[in-house]
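To the wet lab folks,

You asked to see what we're planning to order before we commit. Fair enough. Below is the target structure as tokens, and below that is the sequence we designed to fit it. If anything looks off to you, flag it before the synthesis order goes out.
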């Protein structure tokens, strides 16, 4: 049977001698025997045990759980049960971490690298993000209104085809235009914007607002306070 000194075993398993000493102290891995010169000697049995410890540790098991499994000589059924519990716990942690990362990205998107706003402005940003549900409700209402306008035009076109007359389509088109104007006006009156540089909340003029480049949650506007052009964050007006 092959024998290993502490340093040789550590090198074989790519760990430090300090780690081996720690496992020894915690009664996780004892040497097969100790020579008169105090050299600790490990054999293939200890190598196998160490590999088991490292495998379980890589999967996230605590040293306490590993020690319990080894001392009680549990079989793979116990590992399966522990893994099942750990997977549930880790998935919850991952979900929480992903939620935090998403939130941090949202906050980051509302702050430019050169922003000189005072730190308490972070509270305003938090309030805006907390009220995000209001934004979602507004989008849903606008979507329904837009869908009704589209439906009117489709029905008008269908009737025109059946009747072989342009009149129903023209009427539907006019109704659709009215619906679009109301939709745009309602949307404009419902939102404000926050400059990511100075964090001023403002209402842009309607024409620059209509023709500004935009994303689903931002619009490229000139801040009336700092006069800088940025993708300003869209927020639901508190007065709406």
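Sequence we intend to order:
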């Amino acid at each position: 049977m092959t024998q290993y000194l502490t340093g040789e075993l550590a090198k074989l398993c790519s760990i430090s001698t300090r780690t081996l000493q720690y496992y020894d102290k915690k009664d996780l891995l004892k040497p097969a025997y100790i020579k008169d010169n105090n050299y600790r000697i490990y054999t293939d049995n200890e190598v196998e045990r160490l590999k088991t410890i490292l495998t379980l540790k890589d999967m996230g098991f605590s040293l306490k759980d590993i020690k319990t499994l080894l001392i009680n000589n549990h079989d793979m059924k116990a590992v399966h049960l522990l893994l099942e519990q750990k997977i549930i716990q880790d998935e919850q942690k991952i979900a929480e971490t992903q939620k935090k990362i998403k939130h941090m990205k949202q906050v980051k998107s509302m702050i430019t690298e050169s922003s000189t706003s005072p730190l308490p402005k972070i509270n305003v940003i938090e309030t805006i993000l907390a009220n995000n549900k209001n934004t979602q409700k507004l989008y849903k209402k606008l979507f329904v209104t837009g869908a009704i306008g589209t439906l009117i035009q489709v029905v008008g076109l269908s009737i025109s085809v059946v009747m072989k007359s342009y009149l129903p389509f023209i009427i539907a088109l006019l109704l659709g235009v009215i619906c679009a104007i109301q939709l745009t006006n309602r949307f404009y009156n419902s939102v404000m914007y926050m400059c990511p540089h100075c964090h001023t909340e403002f209402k842009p003029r309607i024409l620059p607002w209509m023709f500004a480049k935009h994303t689903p949650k931002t619009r490229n506007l000139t801040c009336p306070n700092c006069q800088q052009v940025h993708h300003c964050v869209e927020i639901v007006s508190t007065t709406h």
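Structural context that might help your review: The mean pLDDT is 86. The chain has two domains: 6-74, 121-236.

Thanks,
Computational group
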